[in-house]
Amino acid sequence: MLCLFQISPVTLPGSPELSGILRMIGVAFPGAKDQEQWEIEQEEAKSKDHRKIGKAQELFFFHEVSPGSAFFLPKGAHIYNTLTDFIKQEFYVSLMFKQHPRSWRELPLRLADFGALHRNEYSRALGGLTRMRRFCQDDAHIFCAPEQLEQEILGCLDFIRSVYQVFGFSFQCLLSTRPSSFLGDSVLWDLAEEQHLESSLKSFGEQWKLNPKDGAFYGPKVLHILKEAGFIADIDDDVGSTLNKKIRNAQLAQYNYMFVVGDKERERKTVNVRTRCGKQLGQKSLEEALNRLREIRETRSRDVDFDKEQALH
């Protein structure tokens, strides 16, 4: 048995400084030939590193003036814009409407967006174009009638296949069923899972697997309500970040209040309120918290106590 080890420093969540702790990663091989093959594959991977290719072909570069943001050179910008145009052309039926009352005659309504997002990643976590502070995340939603659903799902699957085939990518389909905690009528869930999703996958003709209880939970968003009430609000839903890191980032950004929502809060329709100074005010119903924020806004007072009982009821 042959082994190779790699040692690297560790940064603890919520702190940009080195902790003094070292991380050791080991790889074991049954024999010398296996190690040799692995080393060849590693060298091939290095030669295909997009950061080296980007520099050698003058596609993009990074600079400390804006760490984690790619600066595209003319050749790289041409490739980026060509890819964006290609995706938009494939979404030729997508319509971007201004918000106004809708009619059933407009269904199916397909909306697509290419939005620039920012994430406060630590410099040691950055990795070329795969881990950045500024990146583009495309998003799409389809609003349709129940009888249109299966055809729309098939259209999405065909779209994915047509794009992936151009680049020689492969993909795997998983049918994620509803989680233990879900909203809505179970009958409608059964109808969506069995008669629409499963039926569409069978018609699609590609291999797929069942992924029980891994469906995403989409409930009323504790963010849209705040914005509709006229408050400036953001959400940190990065699944790769710890709660302490999220709270620390919010404190550094000087948010006046933080509403922490976990499984318990979601079930009880409450929020766990914290101040930017780190004071924990406990669980409040969203309605109570909103009423308190409205009072603070209307009185324009810096000395109002958020936790004052008479203001919460």
What do you see in this structure?
This protein is α+β, with helices and mostly antiparallel strands and 313 residues long. The protein has three domains: 2-48, no CATH class; 61-211, Bira Bifunctional Protein, Domain 2 (BirA Bifunctional Protein, domain 2, 2-Layer Sandwich), CATH 3.30.930; 224-312, Rossmann fold (3-Layer(aba) Sandwich), CATH 3.40.50. Helix content is 37%, strand content 22%. The longest helix is centred in the middle third of the chain and has 19 residues, at 149-167. The radius of gyration is 25 Å and the shape is globular. The model is unreliable at 90-95 and 309-313 (pLDDT under 50).
Shape-level CATH architecture of the largest domain: 2-Layer Sandwich
Number of strands: 11
User: How many domains make up the 3D coordinates?
Assistant: 3
Radius of gyration: 25 Å
Work out the helix count: 10
Low-pLDDT parts are 90-95, 309-313
Mean pLDDT: 79
Query: According to CATH, what is the topology of the largest domain?
Result: BirA Bifunctional Protein, domain 2
CATH class of the largest domain: Alpha Beta
Order of helices and strands: EEHHEEHEEHEHEHHEHEEHH
CATH superfamily of the largest domain, called what? Bira Bifunctional Protein, Domain 2
Helix content: 25-40%
Q: Give a quick account of the main beta sheet: strands, pairing sense, barrel closure.
A: 3 strands, antiparallel
Strand content: 15-25%
Biggest sheet: strand arrangement? 9-10-11
Structural class category: alpha+beta
Distance between the termini: 68 Å
- Which outline best applies? globular
Enzyme class: ligase
Domain Aminoacyl-transfer RNA synthetases class-II family profile: 105-218
Keywords: Aminoacyl-tRNA synthetase, ATP-binding, Ligase, Nucleotide-binding, Protein biosynthesis
InterPro entries: aa-tRNA-synt_IIb, aa-tRNA-synth_II, aa-tRNA-synth_II/BPL/LPL, Anticodon-bd, Anticodon-bd_dom_sf, Thr-tRNA-ligase_IIa, ThrRS_anticodon
